[in-house]
Design brief:
about 350 residues; TIM Barrel; eight-stranded parallel β-sheet; two-stranded antiparallel ribbon; 12 strands; binds ligand LIB3CWND; binds magnesium ion; lyase; lyase activity; Beta-methylmalyl-CoA/L-malyl-CoA lyase
């Protein structure tokens, strides 16, 4: 058993000290690209500044024959794109390494940390089963950071995509001060749970409830309502992250053409507490940026509640509704998020400022 005091000590001589708090950096869209795909790689430099996170994916969706090219491609892209990652600009650089039990996982970590560790903000680890996987990555990263002479720790993001990972979600979140957040991996999780779906995220028309019969007429017309397959899983993930001060994300929405259902799925996750999502195709970036930025009218309302609540205690009536300490806390979540996003997104700042000016007229 580790003492609480050991938790914030570096795990290797010469490694940077662990962070005590995970910085709240905007990460509405984590945009996946395959660094071994020349067309995708060519688009990366122009995406810097317009997407919060660019993630060089080395795991699933990269062909086995291209694994080494993807790893080297990511090194080359990081070196050739000076304002990407490592706090050099607004766009963070993440990677998703291959699974820890795969033939590539170890070399992914050793190569990337030693070659471009100063540019990598977060390493996403797939198929995390329990705290033991995070402990392994934690120590290895510390050794590699020391070797590379890095002065800030690389953070770790785990994908929840096995039933065991789900059962161990709280211990995964608390396994290391490097833990930055969790994403839902609905495709692998569905397979591991033996769910009877064949999609990458999103809903299913068969998962529904049907309205009760009228006057016992079970054959009569009875509306059905499609339900959210992922509600329980996302809510569990959000609670585990909130408890540990780290960030929850929805994962992939594989139907690239169905931009409407994609937006709905993202919005459900946003309302439940997620801070961002994955983007698999350039057209999903704008959807994620829109959904994971509070609407200007909600921000304006939140600001009015903050103002009306004065010292933050007691209860007031605003537009016929009671506001108190608890609604104030919700409004502060919105206002703080809006301020963080406005600081990096001038178009959004303009919208938030315009609605304040309008309200004060
Ligand atoms: C889904 C795709 C295979 C679609 O690619 P494509 O058929 O090429 O789409 P388009 O013709 O519409 O593309 C137009 C141009 O845009 C470029 N492009 C496409 N996607 C990207 C991208 N992600 N980043 C940058 N550029 C992109 C194309 O090359 C075209 O360029 P051009 O011809 O020059 O105009 C493809 O989008 C794709 O592979 N996306 C990433 C998929 C991925 O990363 N999957 C893994 C994450 S999901 C997962 O792993 C499941 C999860 O773990 C779980 O368990 O749930
Ligand atoms: Mg997966």
């Amino acid at each position: 058993m580790r003492s609480a005091k050991d938790f914030f000590a570096p795990l290797a001589v010469g490694a940077p000290a662990p962070l005590r708090e995970i910085p709240a950096r905007p990460s509405r869209a984590i945009h996946f690209f395959d660094p071994s795909n020349p067309k995708m790689a060519a688009k990366v430099p122009d995406m810097v500044g317009s997407v919060d996170v660019l993630l060089g994916n080395l795991e699933d969706a990269v062909k086995a024959d291209n694994k080494l090219a993807a790893r080297q491609g990511l090194v080359d892209i990081a070196r050739a794109t000076p304002d990407l990652g490592g706090g050099r600009g607004p766009t963070q650089l993440w990677t998703r390494v291959n699974a820890l039990d795969s033939p590539w996982g170890l070399d992914d970590l050793t190569t990337l940390v030693t070659e471009i560790g100063d540019r990598l903000d977060v390493v996403m680890v797939p198929k995390v089963q329990g705290a033991e996987d995070i402990h392994y990555v934690d120590r290895l990263l510390a050794q590699l950071e020391a070797k590379a002479g890095l002065d800030r720790p690389i953070l770790v993001h785990a994908i929840l995509e096995t039933a065991r990972g789900m059962v161990n979600v709280e211990e995964i979140c608390g396994a290391s001060p490097r833990m930055q957040g969790l994403s839902l991996g609905p495709a692998d999780l569905a397979a591991d749970r033996r769910m009877k779906t064949t999609r990458v995220g999103g809903g299913h028309p068969g998962y529904l409830v049907r309205q009760d019969p009228v006057d016992g007429d079970i054959e009569g017309s009875r509306p059905t309502y499609q339900q959210d397959l992922w509600h329980y899983t996302i809510a569990r993930m959000v609670d585990a992250c909130a408890m540990h001060g780290i960030y929850p994300y929805y994962g992939p929405f594989g139907d690239i053409t169905d931009v409407v259902a994609c937006e709905d799925q993202f919005r459900n996750a946003f309302l439940l507490g997620c801070v961002g999502t994955w983007s698999l195709h350039p057209k999903q970036i704008a959807i994620a940026n829109r959904v994971f930025s509070p609407a200007p009218e909600d921000v304006a309302h939140a600001r009015r509640v903050v103002e009306a609540m004065g010292d933050g205690t007691g209860a007031v009536m605003l537009d016929g509704k009671m506001e108190d300490d608890a609604s104030l806390k919700q409004c502060l979540v919105m206002v703080e998020l809006a301020e963080q996003l406005a600081a990096i997104d001038p178009a959004l700042k303009e919208q938030y400022d315009a609605i304040v000016t309008e309200a004060s007229r």
